[in-house]
Every structure is written in C-alpha cells, then in structure tokens.
Amino acid sequence: MDTLHKIKTAIRQAVGFDLDISYPPTSELGDLSLAVFALAKVKGQNQVILAQEISQNLEQNKKLGSLISDVKAVGPYVNLFLNYTNLGAEVLTEIKKAKNKYGQNDSGLKAGVMIEFSNGNTHKEVHIGHLRNICFGDAITKLLTTSGYKTIPVSYINDFGIFTAKTLWQYQKNQKQYQAMKGSQGYILGTCYKDAVSALEGNDASKAEVTRIMKAIESRQGEYYKLWQETRLWSIAYLKEVYQDLGIKFKKTFYESNVIADGLKIVSGLIKNNVLVKSEGAIIANLEKYNLGVLPIIRSDGTALYPVADLALAVKKFKENKITESIYIVDVRQELYFKQLFKILELMGYQQKITHLAYDFVTLPSGMMSSRSGNVITYRELIDESIANAISETKAKRADWSDRKIKKIATEITLSTIKFEMLKVSSRKTITFDIKEALKFEGYTATYLQYTHARIMSISKKSGTKKTKADYKLLSEPAEKTLIMKLAKYPETILRATEKYDPSEVTKYLFELCQNFNDFYHNVQIIKSKTTVKAARLELALAVGQIIKNGLELLGIQAINEI
C-alpha cells in the first residue's frame, strides 16, 4: 500500500465512514479535503456542524499526529494539511526502495485478460492511423499488467479478406513495375493496394474479376492461392519489422485464414438454431429486436465477411485461455459492429466480460487522411523522415557526438514522440498529428519529458560521488512540497488510468510532474546548496527521474539519459 493510500485509509478509519477524499484546488486550502454530505445524510445531522465535529476528532487522533499537521472545517468540508516532514521521508524512501516497481498494485488479483490490438491487414500499407491502435493497445496491456492482471496481448491479422484479392489483381497487372520499386516487399504491397483501390473505382468488370480471385483464394488451390501464400509472408515479415521498431511483443498472433473454417461451422450451427437466417441469397443476423439492425455474415456470392472469423476467434479465445475478460481495441467506426458481434456471442451462451475499447481518428493538419486521395502518411515514410530531421537537429546541438550515437538518440526521440502523441489525449478524442510540433522541446511533448529526465541525470552526474545521508526534514521549500505531493499521487494515477482504460492520465501526470520539477530546478539551488540540503534535494530529483522513467515505460517509451 502506497503512502498516500495509507494516509487516506487511516483518515477513513478515524472517521469511521468511507468519506469522499479529494484534493482542494489550491494548496493554501489544504492537501486533502473530506466532503461530509453522505455521512450527514446517514446521520441526519447538519453538514456544517458535522464537519466541525470531525475536524476536532481528527485533531485529537494520536495515530494521525505524524501524518497530519493541521485540520480545518470549512462549511461542509474538512480540509487537512499533511505533515510534509514525514510525508517526504516516506514517499522518497518508498520510491528509492521500490524503484521501477513503485506505483504497482494488485487490484487485478491476477485475473486473466486478453487484449487484442494491432488488427493489421496483410497486403495493405501501415500508416499513422494504425499507430494509434498499436500504441494504445500496448499501453493498456502495460497498465493492466502493472495493476496485477495476468495479461495476454494478442494480434489478429486479417489475411483472407477481399482486399487481398484487390492487391493481387493489381500486382498481377503491373508486376514488373512493383518488382522494380525500392523498399521491403511488404511495404510495396501496401502501395499496390492503394493503387488497386483507385483503379477499381467505378470499374464493375474489374470488380467482378476481383471477386473471382477471392473465390480462388478461398478454394485454397490454384495460382492465385499460391501467390496469396507468397505475398502474405511478405506482409507478415513487414509487420514484424514495425513491431520490432516499436518494441511491441505479442504472446499470440491469430490469422483469419486459420479460423475461417471453424467460423463457417459456427455459422452453419447458428442457422440451425435460427440465430442467423438466409436472406436474398446471403446469410445475416437480424438483430433489429435488440435495436442493433442487421449484420451481414456471408455475401450473396458465397464469400465470407468479417463476422465469420471473428465469431470463431472469440470462441477460440475463451476455450483455449483462462481469461475473465476479452478486450478488443478497434476504432470508433466499428462500435455498432462489436455490439452486434457481442450480442450474437451472448445468444450463443457466452456470459464472460467482452469489452470494445474504441479510439477516434488520427488526422493531419491538412485534414482527414484517406488512402484513396493519397492524403496519408505511411509508417515507413513517417519514421524515415522523422529520424532524418532528428539526426539533423541533434548534430547541430551535439557536434561532439559520434554519428552512431546521434542516430541512436535521434531514433529514440522519434519513437518517443510518435508514441506520446498517440497517447496524450483520451482515446475518444481526435488526434491532429503534426510531427514538427511534436518534436518541440517545450510544451506537452515527449521531448519535453525526455529533456527533463536527461536534465535530472545530468544533475546526478555533476553532483559527484560523495555519499551524504539525506535529511528529508530539510525539504521545506514550497516547490519541494509540491514535488513530494505529486510523487505521492503517482500510484493512484496508475490505478485511475487502469480503471478508465486511459493512458492519457499517465501522460498528463508526467507532464505536470516535469513542470513541477522544472519550477523547482529554476527556483531552488541543488548542486550549489549546502552539503546536507544538497543530499536531500538530489534524492528528490532522482525520485522524480525514477517516476518519469516508470511512467514512460508504461507508455512503451524508453527514458533517455542525455539529449
């Protein structure tokens, strides 16, 4: 149990009621505030008088003497001022001892949770819109893990849809052109798909040809099936490159082509049970009585749609894994689809918790991205251009560094920036991605956080190696108290972010922590202060550095020691 949680628990025990404990808007009003509305209602007592009684009782409570320095009743609230001498000692000692484990909790009780994200497609490009899914899913996995859940991150690759036939149709028509292109084969397939979408628009004859190719692939025989097998491996290899760049690891990877047969068997059984029905040559789920409309399952031409494989995969997940919850991370456009899918699973008898975590779009300053219009930034274009810019800027600042070191730092800055931009707003908000703004050293950016961490590491290095025991009682400056309280709030920030499935809670906390530290750095001497004070302030700075590192790791970002 972390220090702040212990204090809140002790206060509630002293009061004898589970009061709501919040934070006043300014430190002048107190560090913690108790609202007595609920207790006054239970007791049938005047709120103001009850607040005064509680205030007096807390002041006289000996167990709280080391934790609370003052208590004041203000209307229906009881405001408490913490004893920062003891708070600082406990929090800093806890961080120094726990290190990268500070902030962890066991709220998940080792419950099994499967998180499905990065549902990429073979034979398509990977662009910055996909990066939001990947970064969000990885952060959710890390949050759940640090909160005591047994997580199983998985990826589901769509490798058997109509888009594969479109790409192969285009590739066969212009094979020499694509073979002459530079870049990995998987990346080239993405370009091929984009070209196919444009070429097929308004071309009914070619669309019919694509349908025939899709049926040939589904038959699992013939030249098109062989070409599908070969090109599928190109895409899988390219996706692995992307995951390796981003440091993403999955415990399992599912492929649509491997579950489609089981899905067709499930569909057959659901038709017999009248969950699915035939309609005008197609097979559908009529969910109108649940206000969920109609979900097509199999087209009238006999080709399968996404629900066929999704049903099979959902069954496979619960059958083969000990999980209490299955989480799908897919964009907001699929909200109705997942409600429909979950309803069918419910009608099949599945009662386990199934959650769809939706996220909104990534746009560019010029507007919405569109593969058809060409207004899209591919992953490879983004990474290569961003690293090149970061290398140029780093060279200008660090002429004494080797080219190898410059490239390493530039790559880390680029990846930090991209991940942070994908996570710094709540998933329900649109992201306008502007790499130039994101790379700035000031403002709500990863670079600002990394620069602050590097500054702390520099302070530690310059402080020398002489060991002096820190006296935390000397941390009495307002900026120091602000930092101590902020550090104490880190564990509950992690818990809140986990409960809300919201990594942006962590990004906001880290940004505010860095602001607090830089205020401290500019207003309080560290290295040049007296030896005893210097030791305490250095411990405080190192604790901040540890929490920045911990928080960044939850976002899938590696802290940089020098920039």
UniProtKB/TrEMBL annotation:
It is an enzyme of class 6 (ligase). Keywords: Aminoacyl-tRNA synthetase, ATP-binding, Cytoplasm, Ligase, Nucleotide-binding, Protein biosynthesis. Residues 449-563 form the DALR anticodon binding domain. The lineage of its organism: Bacteria, Candidatus Falkowiibacteriota. This is Arginine--tRNA ligase. InterPro entries: Arg-tRNA-ligase, Arg-tRNA-synth_N, Arg-tRNA-synth_N_sf, ArgRS_core, DALR_anticod-bd, Rossmann-like_a/b/a_fold, tRNAsynth_Ia_anticodon-bd. It comes from the Bacteria. Belongs to the class-I aminoacyl-tRNA synthetase family. Residues 5-82 form the Arginyl tRNA synthetase N-terminal domain. The keyword Zinc does not apply. Its EC number is 6.1.1.19. GO terms for biological process: arginyl-tRNA aminoacylation.
